[in-house]
Write the structure tokens for this entry.
Amino acid sequence: MTSHAPETKDRGLIAAAIEYTDLRKEITYRDVETMCTEAVLHGLGAVVVPSALVRPAAGWIADGGPSVATVISFPFGTQSVCVKAREAVVAVEQGASELDIVPHFGAILAGRWDDLRRELAEIRNATGKVALKLVLETDRLSSEQISEACAIALDCGFDYVANTVGFRLVSTDPNAQGSASAQVVETLHNLSLNRLKVKAAGGVTTLAIVGALIDAGARRVAVNVSLGGLRALGLTPRAREGES
Amino acid sequence: MTGNKKPRSAPLTVEMFANRMMTATFSPAAAEDEARSFLRRFAQYPTIAAIFVDQPWVEMAQDILTPLGISVGVEAAYPVGNWSTAAKVAAIREGVRLGAEEIDIGGHFTAIKSGDFDAVYDDAKAMIDASNKEIRVMVIPETAIVTRDELARTLEAYAKAGVTGIKTSSGYGWNTCVDDVVLVRREFGETFQIDVSGGVRTVERALGYFAAGADNIHVSPIFRILDEAKELFS
């Protein structure tokens, strides 16, 4: 394992790395309440909800609790810069402290690096000090493209890079979406020269997977409600530990 | 902008059929050069109604499609939805600035599924106000995930908000059925233009939707369907 591997036997550490994510279109206000309550009970790192639900999520989590995060221009990243910046600014105003930014993949694939730099810089300038994560789609990008995008993200003051949007971006096949692996995490560390923190996303369904991804160097791991959420992981609420 | 009002009678020629078909090309499924090649192929086909692209690709698409008589559209809160209203408003204004003729935009699915139809109305009203009638706004209620009652209450809120067009579904596995179109036409008459998306993969199925009252149909395999239509109407 890499030198940046933390001690994954600590459940508190694992919980703090988890981003509890629900970006389903049918998510209800009740779902938001439930996931926020669970996130607080488990001491999770963050909840990730669509931008329309940042305000209610922030209302369920007290200061010092899990961060409220959202994804900007989810899932395709096909909006103009001004639209992304507006969505980001409003999300921060409504209580988000972490933003996952989906870049214009068309610019990355075409090597339009100035366009990517303008996009990321404008979002950083518009959002102040919140944590920013550049969401890539590593299965669709070359090592050179990932490396260049990470370098630009670093220049623009981004904090994290993530391996996938977690939606079927390149096919309507439900199975055609990116997934996390220790190899992907290590690749992102290497291509960002260990200067961006890595968020691993996609297909995380067991606590063992979470632990392996953290061991590989992931600082954050997306656990998706649509894949069974915390119940699939078998996590015990922190508040009940020691009761039995 | 175009109101995109066209006769709703059954198409009798391949040109009439094509004129009510729409498709899309987005990154990262397509790279920019692939999207450009895709758009250029339409010079060899009867004129379709509209093609939807990334916002940063609108100018490129207009260069290719405007001479062909094909409208350029954009999307927002699509296909998963639940963007903040502020983000949707920004996307609509940007669509206007870019000169896009249509924007297809997801409704507030969370509010619909939570029974909060005041929020459904507020979200839709903000979108319609932002459009200022300068762009065709097609709001997506996502028929695949709502009950009949939720759909009816959503459409009541949309009508009250001034929505004049709906796109039944966003596709990507969320499919429409003919009954959805029949229901909307029966309950809401001519209140909405109805564009269909999700699971239309043959000419016969497209014609079925037109017969049910659809105005336009979005399809992924556009060239195959246009080829089939050429044969059918020849």
Notes: Chain B has ten helices and eight strands. The first helix of chain B runs from residue 14 to 18. The longest strand of chain B covers residues 71-76.
